[in-house]
Write a structure and sequence with these properties.
- Strand 1, helix 1 and strand 2 form a beta-alpha-beta unit.
- With 364 residues, the protein is mainly α.
- Helix 3 packs across helix 15 and helix 4 runs parallel beside helix 16.
- The protein is elongated, with a radius of gyration of 24 Å.
- The strands form two sheets. A three-stranded parallel β-sheet has the order 1-2-3. Strands 4-5 form a two-stranded parallel sheet.
- It has 17 helices and five strands.
- The protein has two domains: 232 residues, HUPs (Rossmann fold); 93 residues, Orthogonal Bundle (Tyrosyl-Transfer RNA Synthetase), CATH 1.10.240.10.
- It starts with 5 loop residues before the first strand and ends with a helix.
- It binds tryptophan (TRP).
């Protein structure tokens, strides 16, 4: 049988999605969805994973499940083309994780760089919950239960994908070819890989208050761009400026396209020309920020509008999620039957087994 091409990716529903998620992954998902090059697309909310470090705050996860679903729909993820589902509603994922736990050692998990930094960030150290510690295993189950071939995520997820690939190899080696090794698909350029916050800090994060959300109003976006971090040494317009580490230019790397110049800044042919002028001196921050605002509003306005429309019928969004969960569950259940068969724990659908045992005990 020809290998199907299957995309799968997910997000922890711990907050509304911001433009870092958008340029890092959401925009690409919509392109993949509409490319016609994939047989199936699965996009899911990793609520059970979100609970691994929010166990005392289930309300936060519950509230954000609908926010993230709205963000997905607003960006153009289309339930007619992609299956959108919620991790906790697929019990097969727990079952698969449980079997995978026998294939991974404690020391292998301890070496996972993402888990290492997250443990430090959360001051978990020795009190780390087992569920949090083992989430790379559960993530491998998320991916392999759907036989995903292509997983579009940020580079921080690379160790998770490596872990999943190892588990697949080990499983297939022991139990025979059953699961599919997934490939990571990273964002196209450095700016998209890790979009900094509006304050220039390395990461956009809710706790730092440096995010631009997909659900922000046009005014909020305008204001956030106006106060955005640039080059602190670029004091007068005539001063030469630095483009590297200048958030406004990083955002332009992520958002601007050549055609934007014709529309909003016809004095420059492209971003390289604009950067060259800024470096030379004589180009003010205000002008560059105005251009960035125009470019970003053009991309964000349709998303905002679509989000508002979906907000008008929340029960329909839950219904869409429910249908997605049912469809996803059927796929995961198929994989789990294959897994149980490979692991020889399919006692009741194997007539040969029963006959063989009967023969053994009757002494024939
Ligand atoms: N760990 C991912 C994140 O924090 C979310 C996630 C869970 C995921 N399971 C996944 C992503 C499977 C891709 C594939 O963003």
């Amino acid at each position: 049988m020809k290998q199907e091409k299957i995309v799968l990716t997910g997000d922890r529903p711990t907050g509304k999605l911001h433009i870092g998620h958008y340029v890092g992954s959401l925009r690409r998902r919509v392109e993949l969805q509409n490319s016609g090059q994939f047989d199936k697309i699965f996009i899911f909310e990793a609520d059970a994973q979100a609970l691994t470090d929010n166990i005392d705050n289930p309300e936060k996860v519950r509230q954000n499940v609908i926010e993230v679903a709205l963000d997905y729909l607003a960006c153009g993820i289309d339930p007619a083309k992609s299956t959108i589902f919620i991790q906790s509603q697929i019990p097969e994922l727990c079952e698969l994780s449980f079997y995978f736990m026998d294939l991974v050692s404690v020391s292998r998990l301890q070496r996972n760089p993402t888990v290492k930094t997250e443990i430090q960030m959360r001051n978990f150290e020795a009190s780390i919950p087992v569920g949090f510690f083992t989430y790379p295993i559960s993530q491998a189950a998320d991916i392999t239960a759907f036989k995903a071939t292509t997983v579009p995520v940020g580079e921080d997820q690379e160790p998770m994908l490596e872990q999943a690939r190892e588990i697949v190899r080990r499983f297939n080696y022991i139990y025979g070819d059953t699961l599919v090794e997934p490939n990571i698909l990273l964002p196209e350029n450095a700016a998209c890989l890790r979009l900094p916050g509006t304050d220039g800090k390395a990461k956009m994060s809710k706790s730092l208050g440096n995010c631009i959300y997909l659900s922000d109003s046009a005014d909020e976006v305008e204001k956030k761009i106006r106060t955005m971090y640039t080059d602190p040494n670029h004091l007068k317009v005539s001063d030469p400026g630095q483009v590297e580490g200048n958030t406004v230019f990083t955002y332009l790397d992520a958002f601007s396209r050549p055609e934007h110049f014709g529309r909003y800044l016809p004095d420059y042919a492209d971003l390289e020309e604009l950067k060259a002028h800024y470096r030379r001196g004589g180009l003010g921050d205000v002008k560059v920020k105005k251009f960035l605002a125009a470019v970003m509003q053009e991309e964000l306005e349709p998303i905002r509008q679509r989000r508002k429309e979906f907000e008008q019928d929340i029960p329909a969004v839950y219904e869409m999620l429910k249908k997605g969960c049912e469809a996803a569950r059927a796929v995961a259940a198929d994989t789990l039957s294959e897994v149980r068969k490979a692991m020889k724990i399919n006692y009741f659908d194997d007539e040969a087994l029963i006959a063989e045992q009967a023969a053994r005990f009757s002494g024939k």
